[in-house]
């Protein structure tokens, strides 16, 4: 990897996190802005995708990106479908649920590591 690309990766990750947080904050605070829709869309795609990618450490990078992107879309659709089915749909509620599910998915590997849950093989 080129040294400039390696140094700019944390900067890009920070910009992505900032954009997603700004989108979620604009929706949850009910602030009208021309940036609300694109930033919120970015949050709804990237937050669950990054959370899923963090749980899929065993896959190669391309497979992880594809599975995380598809899983992100599926998670968003399931949240919307369940909220519509229960007559609880709201934009703020949908963003809050996606944020909570993403945070939970981010914390799963950490919890698994802290409790020491590992797969142990038995010797025959």
TrEMBL record:
Membrane-spanning parts: 39-59, 66-88, 94-111
Keywords annotated in UniProt: Membrane, Transmembrane, Transmembrane helix
Keyword Transmembrane among UniProt keywords: yes
This protein's name: DUF1616 domain-containing protein
């Amino acid at each position: 990897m080129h040294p400039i690309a390696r140094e700019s990766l944390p900067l890009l990750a920070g910009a992505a996190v900032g954009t997603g947080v700004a989108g979620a904050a604009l929706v949850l605070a009910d602030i009208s802005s021309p940036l609300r829709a694109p930033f919120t869309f970015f949050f709804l795609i990237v937050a669950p995708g990054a959370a899923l990618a963090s749980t899929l450490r065993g896959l190669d990078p391309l497979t992880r990106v594809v599975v995380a992107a598809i899983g992100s879309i599926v998670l968003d659709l399931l949240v919307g479908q369940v909220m519509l089915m229960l007559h609880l749909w709201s934009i703020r509620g949908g963003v809050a649920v996606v944020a909570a599910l993403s945070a939970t998915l981010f914390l799963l590997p950490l919890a698994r590591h802290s409790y020491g849950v590992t797969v142990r093989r038995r010797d025959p």
